[in-house]
Design the sequence.
């Protein structure tokens, strides 16, 4: 007897990817629906989602394809990219990622699926890695305090400009930028300066500050070192001159060059910024890469972004944590000094580990090799009659070939090497770690030169100026000396990963952060050389695969959101917010409404909203939130009436930050439009809308999306992210553009938001693959299951913890808020106590005290299966029982498993002086010893770390006693 016939076409399709991505299967969904009280996903979302926002039509997207088919399609796109030897430079260089770092960091879910380390006890591994990064940057720049990374060099320069204004004594002068700075850096600074009223002067600083500029008052100066042209010059005279004028001086420095050249700190700089891309991070057509900033000690507490510090835990042991967290925008809002969502943790870890693996001697050797290639290249060109403009350089040459520059660039391209066409008479050529002898030969041939590299090597001296050679030691800490073998490095990376909690261990139920599956199929193409090794300024004809992928992703995101045009340039959600608000500002100004500068923001909004509005030159006016968590309509109407002529935009999050679908959203949008304003719909919660509703259709004029939330790019321990911006047609002329790539945006655009034309293009294949794997129906079902999972958790927890806000039918959207305030008031058990106790149960805590103090915001996503959802609910219910034991007096308020959480393995030994047993502390209900996650440290003393700010690898004896 034979089995029933199954058509070949069905067998070929295999298991749909949707079933791999969505955690609960059909049976589990039925059980969850029964708990919530609905018969189907459609019935549930029909009740939860207000009719006024629902989309009538299905998403018009290509049908879902299998994982094998999508990988083949991506391979076909990759093959349309042509990877030539890159000598374009301008801050992007070929680099060799040590395979031990590529495999065990970049391709390792223990590193790339982790969240921002706001729960430091379960983030000790990546915090140590970031401290290594900070130490590397601080010591190479010669400045004592470095942040834990910024987005890229261009935006780091813009942050330095803002920092100079905040801390400097001169308040009304100009900001001077070196004419030999990277052109994209100049453009990003100009984009960021214009809305805030800062006047930028681009000047030739080779002979110091021009007198006519100095007379106007100078807030700050940015100098490139080495210059974009490649020249290495002594910048100390211009630094001294700027200081005499009271200006703050920033040096944009190449870290590899700083292994050989005098550091910016020793030259007198106040701030150093740049990129760490060439420390083992692929170019990726522009990103993601970790920018850096280091400052003098007196500016440490004004440093933008994140800062890893050293503190102690409850036993007095060394422990790492994010320092100065009160700068978090959820707290400071419109008074924030910067936007904290500006980090590239995964890439910072890679760059820091590159330094750990190579050590100071290895880095210096790579730098010397790079400089040697540039020296021999210059010598061969000079001998052949080609003029090399500068006599001192590190890795980049500018050559003068009157009227023949384009011809030389074209000939080099034919020989397999990309050079940079500066103008009709000049060509720029940059060497790097990957430069080969064959490439030098191809360049010489392109200029009509014949040279013998061996003969040149025997005769030619290096060209770095003796007076600028570095003499001090750096990277002396043991971490930069003890992991030279691959075995040692492998074990170090494993040891750090084992200290952390990421999605490869269990659910991270963070509200608003959407910690969902980052599928391996989606991740795999990122490291393909056809995507990873392409320079962002390579000729467009060499990037046809990338450009096709970018165009298709833009079109599909526009379809999902209902907008007319999408820009992928913003390389973080915060940058997407800024780009959207600048588009609104550009639209009003084009209409002659320059007075429209008021941005209305509900009090419950993400803190980044207010910070972005200030950066866009707007005045923030807060709108009240009603008792049910929705926008207070009466207060909104009053504010609209009060600021009718000045109203620029309303920023709302939908579903609301309180986790509900607001029924009045269409009325809200209409009221703003009637007053002449625009509506910005924050896309942070788009995971509750995809396939069900489109913000561009229910009243939004502009939204940023979070590809690292809704569209599966991993959080990477706190970055990378991508925050594209979608707009209606009338705002499209004011999207970002780029001075070096006309196809990146409209000619009438606001300028570049990030340094690269398409931002973090290297990780766009992830989101492209996700949409292609799921198709329209799969994306819709993912949204429906996300809503189901949130409601399932809400229903299970509601008898034990009040669910703070509900929408139609008593339902929540894709997340729910549970209120611990009554319990805290009655028992003294704090939200922190519960968060840390969850670690003992094997969980990362939900989002704490946002948007309401003393609450948890829980978002399970669609990717977690019912077993994990139940495990979490069981843990929360068990913790509720533990709180009751405190309430009854069985456990003292100051000595119980919650107050002492988390419990480490070290607590199992020695004396036990607590009223509860060791087993109750370390193996609470449902925790199996064989699967136990052990936090490496006990609860960390945050205040101690802020009072005693240590932000680089301290000497080991600093911890004695």
Sequence:
């Amino acid at each position: 007897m034979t089995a029933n016939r199954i058509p070949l076409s069905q067998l070929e399709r295999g298991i749909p990817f949707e079933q791999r991505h969505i955690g609960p299967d059909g049976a589990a969904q039925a059980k969850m629906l029964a708990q919530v009280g609905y018969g189907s996903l459609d019935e549930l979302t029909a009740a939860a989602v207000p009719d006024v926002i629902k989309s009538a039509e299905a998403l018009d997207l290509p049908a879902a394809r299998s994982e094998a088919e999508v990988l083949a399609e991506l391979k076909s796109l990759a093959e349309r990219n042509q990877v030539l030897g890159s000598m374009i430079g301008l801050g992007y260089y070929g680099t060799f990622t040590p395979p031990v770092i590529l495999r065990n960091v970049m391709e390792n879910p223990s590193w790339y699926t982790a969240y921002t380390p706001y729960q430091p006890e379960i983030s000790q591994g990546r915090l140590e890695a970031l401290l290594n990064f900070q130490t590397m940057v601080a010591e190479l720049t010669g400045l004592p305090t470095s942040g834990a990374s910024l987005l890229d060099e261009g935006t780091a320069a813009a942050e330095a400009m803002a920092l100079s204004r905040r801390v400097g004594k001169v308040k009304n002068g100009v900001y001077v930028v070196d004419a030999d700075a990277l052109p994209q850096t100049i453009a990003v600074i100009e984009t960021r300066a214009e809305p805030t009223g800062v006047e930028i002067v681009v000047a030739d600083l080779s002979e110091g500050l021009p007198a006519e500029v100095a007379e106007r008052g100078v807030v700050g100066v940015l100098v490139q070192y080495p210059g974009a042209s490649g020249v290495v010059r002594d910048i100390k005279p211009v630094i001294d001159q700027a200081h005499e004028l009271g200006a703050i001086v920033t040096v944009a420095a190449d870290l590899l060059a700083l292994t050989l050249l005098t550091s910016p700190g020793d030259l007198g700089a106040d701030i150093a910024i740049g990129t760490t891309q060439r420390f083992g991070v692929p170019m990726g057509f522009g990103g993601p890469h970790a920018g850096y900033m280091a400052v003098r000690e007196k500016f440490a507490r004004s440093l933008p972004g994140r800062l890893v510090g050293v503190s102690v835990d409850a036993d007095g042991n060394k422990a790492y944590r994010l320092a100065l967290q009160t700068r978090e925008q959820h707290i400071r809002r419109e008074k924030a000094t910067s936007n904290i969502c500006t980090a590239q943790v995964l890439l910072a870890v890679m760059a820091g580990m590159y330094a750990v693996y190579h050590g100071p001697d290895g880095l210096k050797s790579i730098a010397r090799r790079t400089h040697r290639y540039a020296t021999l290249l210059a010598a061969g060109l000079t001998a052949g009659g080609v003029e090399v403009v500068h006599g001192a350089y590190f890795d980049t040459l500018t050559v003068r070939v009157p009227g023949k520059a384009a011809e030389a660039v074209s000939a080099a391209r034919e020989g397999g090497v990309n050079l940079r066409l500066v103008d009709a008479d000049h060509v720029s050529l940059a060497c790097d770690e990957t430069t080969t002898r064959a490439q030098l030969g191809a360049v010489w041939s392109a200029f009509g030169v014949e040279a013998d590299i061996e003969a040149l090597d025997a005769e030619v001296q290096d060209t770095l100026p003796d007076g600028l050679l570095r003499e001090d030691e750096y990277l002396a800490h043991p971490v930069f000396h003890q992991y030279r073998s691959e075995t040692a490095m492998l074990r170090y990376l494993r040891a750090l990963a084992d200290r952390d909690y990421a999605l490869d261990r269990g659910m991270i139920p963070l509200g608003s952060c959407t910690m969902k599956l980052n599928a391996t199929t989606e991740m795999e193409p990122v490291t393909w050389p056809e995507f990873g090794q392409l320079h962002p300024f390579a000729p467009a004809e060499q990037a046809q695969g990338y450009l096709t992928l970018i165009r298709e992703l833009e079109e599909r995101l526009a379809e999902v959101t209902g907008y007319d045009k999408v820009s992928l340039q913003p390389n973080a959600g915060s940058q997407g917010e800024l780009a959207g608000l600048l588009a609104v500002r550009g639209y009003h100004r084009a209409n002659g409404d320059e007075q429209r500068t008021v941005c209305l923001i509900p009090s419950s909004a993400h803190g980044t909203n207010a910070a972005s509005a200030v950066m866009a030159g707007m005045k923030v006016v807060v709108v009240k939130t009603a008792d049910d968590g929705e926008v207070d309509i009466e207060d909104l109407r009053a504010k609209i009436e009060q600021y009718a002529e000045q109203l620029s935009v309303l920023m709302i999050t939908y579903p609301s930050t309180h986790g509900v679908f607001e029924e009045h959203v269409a009325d809200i949008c209409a009221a703003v439009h009637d007053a002449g304003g625009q509506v910005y719909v924050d896309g942070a919660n788009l995971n509750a809308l995809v396939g069900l509703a489109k913000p561009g259709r229910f009243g939004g004029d502009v939204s940023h999306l979070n590809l690292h939330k809704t569209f599966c790019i991993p959080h990477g321990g706190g970055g990378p992210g991508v925050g594209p911006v979608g707009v209606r047609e009338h705002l499209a002329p004011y999207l970002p553009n780029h001075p070096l790539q006309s196809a990146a945006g409209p000619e009438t655009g606001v300028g570049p938001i990030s340094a690269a034309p398409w931002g973090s293009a290297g990780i766009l294949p992830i989101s492209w693959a996700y949409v292609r794997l799921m198709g329209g129906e799969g994306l819709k079902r993912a949204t429906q299951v996300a809503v189901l999972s949130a409601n399932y958790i809400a229903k299970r927890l509601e008898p034990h913890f009040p669910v703070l806000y509900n929408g139609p039918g008593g339902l929540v959207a894709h997340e729910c808020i549970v209120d611990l305030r009554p319990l805290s008031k009655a028992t003294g058990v704090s939200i922190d106590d519960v968060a840390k106790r969850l670690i003992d149960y094997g969980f990362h805590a939900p989002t704490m005290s946002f948007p309401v103090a003393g609450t948890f915001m829980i978002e399970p996503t669609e990717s977690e299966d019912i077993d994990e959802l139940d495990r979490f609910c069981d843990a929360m219910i068990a913790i509720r029982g533990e709180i009751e034991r405190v309430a009854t007096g069985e456990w003292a308020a100051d000595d119980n498993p919650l107050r002492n959480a988390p419990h480490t393995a070290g607590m199992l030994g020695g004396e036990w002086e607590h009223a509860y047993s060791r087993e109750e502390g370390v193996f609470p209900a449902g925790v199996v010893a064989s699967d136990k996650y052990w936090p490496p440290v006990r609860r960390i003393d945050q205040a101690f770390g802020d009072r005693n700010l240590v932000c680089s690898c301290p000497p080991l004896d600093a911890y004695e006693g």
User: Anything to note?
Assistant: The two ends are 78 Å apart (CA to CA). The first strand starts at residue 85 and ends at 86. The first helix runs from residue 8 to 13. The chain has a mean pLDDT of 94.
